[in-house]
Each structure stands twice: as structure tokens, then as C-alpha cells.
Design a protein that fits this description.
- This protein has 2 domains: 186 residues, Nitrogenase molybdenum iron protein domain (Rossmann fold); 99 residues, Rossmann fold (3-Layer(aba) Sandwich), CATH 3.40.50.
- It is 41% helix and 11% strand.
- It contains 10 helices and 8 strands.
- The strands form 2 sheets. Strands 2-1-3-4 form a 4-stranded parallel β-sheet, covered by helices on one side. A 4-stranded parallel β-sheet has the order 6-5-7-8, with helices on both faces.
- The radius of gyration is 20 Å and the shape is globular.
- The N terminus is likely disordered.
- The structure holds zinc ion (ZN).
Length: 312
Amino acid sequence: MAVQAVDGKGNPTPYLLMALMLISIGTLFLSGCIDLGESGKVDVIITIEPQREMVERIGGDLVSVNVMVPTGQSPHSYSPLPSQLLDVAVADVYFMVGSGVEFEINHLSTLREQNDDMVVVDCSEGVEILEFGEHHDGEEEGGEADHDHGTEDSHIWLSPGNYRTMAGNVYLVLIEMDPDNEGTYSENYKAYVEELDALITELESMFEPHDGREFLTYHPGWGYFGDDLNLTQMTIEEEGKKPGPQGLAALIDQAREHNITVVYVEPQFDISSAEVIAESIGGEVIEIDPLAPNYIENIRDVAVKIKGGFGS
Ligand SMILES: [Zn+2]
């Protein structure tokens, strides 16, 4: 996976454009409230399905949400359809993930062209974005399986702590855009954050007995999740590429060394190399989804599956 701000020709303009267009949440100022248009609701664009829950729980009936990257597609490669640009044309606000997701880097200027008035919000404000090599690491295993040093990891939403920060940003923007309904947003936000905090506490106690363990996934999406719980993500995919025969052999050795019995795969990717590894270690392939819409339920499901791989 190439989470890069620079395209194949070394052209850095998408990032620059993004920086110029973003509204900093700290300085968001709107002259009065927005005109809620035909729908009578705040029309929201999000990039990926996991953002839906925070927006719909905080906004309730006051918001209408449109997702850009549909289920089954990857935010690392998807391009918007013409029909989606029509949704953007009538949107009030675009809640970007903001951490360098390729869809946003590649297509923000196109989305902006549809709608000058749309407020564009970087929901990653306040989240520490790490490079792949900066995540909590177990012992490195020689050169063969090196991490993608120097590349930013855009999968911030898979840490419930980061997700809580992103939800706080959504809340601040909604009360600014629609101050008449601040009471409703506040109540909804408080209730949702309580659920997120309960999830965080639950996960911490689930993984306390497994401090420092490694888990093996196909796509490197779970680094922030691992950081929260003091687990180390090992990945099959390196820089968006399937491993060759030597890489596979090295991974199989590492998996054996770390007593790994499960290879986790993401539904958006080809899993053939995961199956080869699982077969070699006498383990199984289990699916975990980084892009599921029901965030809390999905993260809890992923946690149960990863804990299950540790044997108790
Ligand atoms: Zn990803």
C-alpha cells in the first residue's frame, strides 16, 4: 500500500492543494449558521463507512450522510462516480479522515470543484499520525520483512482512541454549523463518547494478558489498533505488493517463531498469499474488516477474533 503524498511523477501538488483547502477546526468561523437547503438537514460527505457511525450518532435526524468509497472498494484506489459528484454538489460539509487516505489526496480538488461553499474538515486534527515503522514494534526480524519506513500510515480510525478524537472534531463543527440544535448534538455526543470509552476500557482488559503479542494481517491497517493495546502488527503486504516466494518463506518462519496460528485478511484484498501462509503453519484464515460501517460493533468483533488467535 502506498500512502504517499507524491504521485508517480514526484508531483507533490495534491498535498499542497489539500493544505490550502482545509479549514482548521480551531479557527472554523462561519458567519451565522448555514442554509440547510432542500433537505432541511446538514448534508454530510464522508470518505469511508467507518466514519458514518460517529456522524449519525452525533447528528441523529439532523444530518444526512453520503459516503464516497462504497462497501467493497478500497480508499487506497477508488475514484468517485459522476453520480457521487452530484451528491457533493449539494453537500454542506465534507468530513475528511485527513490522515493521507489516497482517495482524499487524489480527489479532493475534483470534489471541491463541484461545490465552492462546502466546508471541508480535517477530522485527524489532534491525532498523531505515525509512519509505518513508528508503530509499537516487536523485535525486528532482519531485512527481509522490514516495515515500510518513511511512509505515513493513514488508518488512524482503527484506534478507538483516535476515533474518539475524530468524533470530537465532528461534534465541534456540527454545533458551529447548526447552533440552533447545539443541545441535541451535545446530548448525542456525550452518549456516544461514553460508549466509545466503554469500548476502550473493554479492549484494554481483554488484551492485558496478551501484552506484547504479535498478530499477522494481510493489509497493514491495524498498526494504530495494535498501539492502543500494546500488540504488534505483522503484515504480509509490503508497500501495497504481495510478497514473492522469498518474502513468503520469511513470513512463514516469523509466524512460526511467534506462535501465530491465524492469518487475518481484509475483504477488500486478494487473500491467496494469506492462504499459503496459513496452510504452511497449520493455521487458519480469518476475515477482519477495516471499513465496516458499524464501528463499535465491528471493532469489538475484530478484537474478539484477534484475542482468539492468542489461544485463550
Ligand atoms: Zn488500508
